[in-house]
Amino acid sequence: MNREIRKNWLVAAGLGAALAAATVWNNRRGNYDLTGKVVLITGGSRGLGLLLARYAAAEGAHLAICARDAEELERARQELSDMGARVLTFPRDLTDVQEIRTLVAEVQQQLGPIDVLVNNAGIITAGPLDHMELREYQESMDTHFWAPLHAMQAVLPAMRRRGEGRIVNIASVGGKVAVPHLAPYSASKFALVGLSEAFRTELKQHGILVTTVCPGLMRTGSARHAIVKGQHRKEYAAFTLADSLPAISMDAETAARQIWHACRRGDAEVILSLPAKLLSGFHGLFPGTTADVLSWVNRALPEPGSELGNERRYGYESESAITRSPLTAANQKAEKENNELTKKVG
Hints:
Layout: H1 2-29, E1 38-42, H2 47-58, E2 62-67, H3 70-82, E3 86-91, H4 97-110, E4 116-119, E5 125-126, H5 134-162, E6 165-170, H6 183-203, E7 208-215, E8 217-219, E9 227-228, H7 232-244, E10 249-251, H8 252-265, E11 269-272, H9 274-285, H10 287-300, E12 313-314, H11 329-337
Parallel strand pairs: 1-2, 1-4, 2-3, 4-6, 5-9, 6-7, 7-11, 8-10
Antiparallel strand pairs: 9-12
């Protein structure tokens, strides 16, 4: 009898442990169901945006993606449609407020009210402070601050009427800690973090949850679309090497999955990758020391170039033996997988 009781107890304990584990897993993943939801992803034609779209498509969401390049969008549409997703594409310049407003209106007209807005579109300019002109700061702010602001303002009336909605703003650890040679990028991402947090605090009472995402370096394959200034080849080599090394960069598919988990849970903020969490945490405790350490990092980066350094070149125009070497194999693989190879390689 005692043996039978012990057996039953062990079975019950095992089932209890399994249930507890399933509960923990479900809570980690979140229980917001994307099936049938209308999801708008800006910058959704390639890189992280396309990865996020793939996950949403796999869960049965109705997708709207936008980007500037119509050919990129068509390739993304074909891929997502092959997964069985209902997807619409919209070539748009998100630095134009009117294009954002018409985008949201058309999505709502064709797919229905937007349940989830993902502000993912981005631009990055790498180079020494000496070569950064007002144009770089304006472009970064237009893309990372004003475009998300206008998009949120456009979707909020319908979300308020329904009393629910999700907004995901893809910021950066560069919006927590100023990174050398990325001054316009960091400044605009700092602005986006503040904007996103402010919207979170005032919209939660209306059932609208805003999640601020701060990734570190990710292997999306998008480095070749970065704008570089200064000593172009050296600058791009430093940038793409950092973006490729597994020790300091994150697998983009893992990042996309964790972003959706944070959205489902309704998290206020998620910082992606251990190096990004450590850097952000250390900066929070010791901001002065962090700045001093990063000033030493800056000394190891390429110095300003001649007047030619003021010329803007894309990463794919600044390739070298190093940037197409085995050291960047992870990013080269990601370029092919994530629709980044829209320009000549090499």
